[in-house]
Specification:
single chain, mainly alpha, Rossmann fold, 3-stranded parallel β-sheet, 8 helices, about 55% helix, PIN-like_dom_sf
């Protein structure tokens, strides 16, 4: 089973109880899948713990892989090649490509642009757009 990876738009959709967010990963979750949320994505979406009850509940069921030196350098190189300013989206793209993950995102064009700059490894990831 390919991993499911959330970007910040997906976390915001979860917090707002967006129906499309909760439908998309249902079969993955019922099959025992544990979604991934890169640590920088949590930083981008989290603002006030007192208000993020829904988000905290979601994150408690996710794995949050750390951003180590090697990943950080790879992200920096990718955003440089792709000429984009967002290392958070870069982190999502790099992890998705490395893991062959499905990315649940509200920014499918941005993530696809980054994946396109990764060569053949970028083709291993799949995008699920939040609509």
């Amino acid at each position: 089973m390919k991993p499911f990876l959330y970007d910040a738009g997906a976390l915001i959709a979860a917090e707002r109880n967006h129906a499309a967010f909760w439908r998309a990963p249902h079969s993955y979750l019922t099959a025992g899948g544990v979604p991934l949320v890169p640590a920088p994505v949590v930083s981008q979406a989290w603002r006030d713990g007192a208000r993020h009850v829904q988000l905290a509940r979601l994150l408690s069921g996710c794995d949050i892989p750390p951003t180590d030196h090697r990943l950080a350098r790879g992200v920096g190189e990718l955003v440089g090649r792709a000429e984009v300013p967002d290392p958070v989206d870069g982190t999502v793209a790099v992890l998705a490509a490395q893991l062959g993950a499905r990315v649940f995102t509200s920014d499918p064009d941005d993530i696809q642009h980054l994946l396109d700059h990764m060569g053949p490894i970028g083709k291993q990831a799949r995008i699920w757009a939040l609509s």
